[in-house]
């Protein structure tokens, strides 16, 4: 079972978001074949990551599910830029075309975690060339390409960021799972 394949990812994401679910509900909401939902749910059930309850399934080991993703996906920046510009001014330049991820998104969900680097999903070559022309400075920007789902983003305080589940998945895939402890405990345990 490859959790990063398009259809399987939608099922796993739904399991993480719903926490208590039925196979029918996931199949209907995610528009995925029931047979695939059944196969994925049974795979997780056999490993003890979810449990069967009367009338539904329940997530029992979210950290184990998150830890599967790095086996199939490594998240490394395709570009690193250091600029001399305040974050607020940079957000105006990005114009909502970039989305915060990794530790930058985590800081919106967990007040105890701060990272001076700015991690963003950006697939816009125009903005990238503008960033490269800025004077060098102390704002460290790491650029990533979106590779799982464009549906994994929400707006927080006017800034597009990855959802909670996607933020944790990304951090596990970037070898920063240690930073997710508070969020996992608060949201999934």
Spell out the blueprint of helices and strands:
Layout (H helix, E strand, L loop, with lengths): L5 H13 L1 E2 L1 H8 L3 H14 L2 E4 L2 E4 L2 H7 L10 E5 L3 H8 L4 E2 L1 H8 L8 E4 L3 H9 L5 E6 L8 E4 L2 E4 L1 H10 L7 H8 L1
Description:
By secondary structure, the protein is an alpha+beta fold. The protein is built from nine helices and nine strands. The protein folds into two domains: 55 residues, Winged helix-like DNA-binding domain superfamily/Winged helix DNA-binding domain (Arc Repressor Mutant, subunit A), CATH 1.10.10.10; 110 residues, no CATH class. Helix content is 45%, strand content 19%. The strands form three sheets. Strands 4-7-6-5 form a four-stranded mixed beta sheet. It has a three-stranded antiparallel beta sheet with strand order 1-3-2. A two-stranded antiparallel ribbon has the order 8-9. The chain is elongated. The mean pLDDT is 91.
